[in-house]
Amino acid sequence: MIVEPRIKGFICTTAHPDGCRENVIRQIEFVKKNGIINGPKKVLIIGASTGYGLASRITAAFGCQADTIGIMYEREASGKRTASPGWYNTKAFEEEARKAGLYAYSINKDAFLRQTKEEAMDVIEKNLGKIDMIIYSLAAPRRTTEDGQVYESVLKPIGEKFSEKSWNLTTNVISEATIEPATQEEVDQTVKVMGGEDWQDWIRMLAERNLLSNGAVTIAYSYIGPELTYPVYYNGTIGMAKKHLQKTAQDLTTEFTSIGMKAYISVNKALVTQASSAIPIVPLYFALLYQVMKEKGIHEGCIEQTDRMFREKLFSGRVITDDENRIRLDDLEMRKDVQEETMRRWKMIHCNNLSELADLKGYWDDFYHMFGFGFSNVDYTKEVEI
Ligand code: NAI
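Above: inputs. Below: predicted complex with NAI.
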């Protein structure tokens, strides 16, 4: 059938198989062009089908020549409904990896469940032996625990409501948006979903089954951002979950000193992904930041970020962290000149100068690309098998 984008709010309900393949191939080409990385050879990626997790998987495979196991939770096509982009991305990734002689196995199941973990460990035991790197890149709206209890993650401030400028993606109107504060119950549930508990469960289960190599490394992704977004991010519900994630990194490193495993948080750059476009107020900051970083020639996407993480921060001889033991891939985003210019624009932005000060095109290009649309070399008038 002919697949067209169908946008509802901050999400596109269709995905284009050929476009998703193009998105994967471009990322593979980027990493290959940069050459081989002396990195891990057996890598498990949890949340491997889109955004930072997909880019990490591509970097591990095509930079380090690693065998990879990816976990994701994606929708298959049914009837006239396309699959989700992560489903097509994963198919394309697996095909490209196999063509390159690399082992690639994917499990499309709920990563929070014990059964999924056991399945992954059976595959590791049988086909890989031990794992040298685990990347935890889940962004999930909810988590169901073994007892059937469902926890929801919310993006809200804590203590008091937060009002700021917001960009309506449909009408291009800038108006003030207000987000009501979270209840304590909502804070706790968000930590349960997006905090470090499940990451710790994965690592402990791998260790129990003796599937971690000596000196293995594990990374989970976090975000800090500017003070402007602190109420809705860093000091909000998601920020609490990220602080828990950071504490988990310290705990994991301590717990597994006997095998020399190190756990890190990598603080990444703000980028348009399915998870981040759902955060209120933040898209306007993204569009301003994109413009400023592009003008300065330092803009990066997910693949540039993960490639740099592997090449420069993790596997260049020594791990480069800040004084809180965090890897900082947000170094360019948080550079003083970048932040000053972004904030200057933030103060003066309104409907009439929006397209001049903010990179609306860049935002939308990234958004469409995520769903496999907007690539000039893909023929969207052609019938495709979904
Ligand atoms: P994304 O939405 O592109 O990717 C989420 C991944 O998690 C997908 O592979 C999805 O299939 C998988 N997933 C979701 N629920 C699952 C479940 N129950 N079981 C198995 N897989 C599941 O998100 P993005 O933005 O790449 O986020 C990944 C991590 O990076 C998150 O921790 C996020 O907070 C962090 N991060 C994101 C930034 C951004 O601006 N996008 C900035 C800094 C950190």
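The domain at 7-155+185-271+301-332 is CATH 3.40.50.720 (Rossmann fold).
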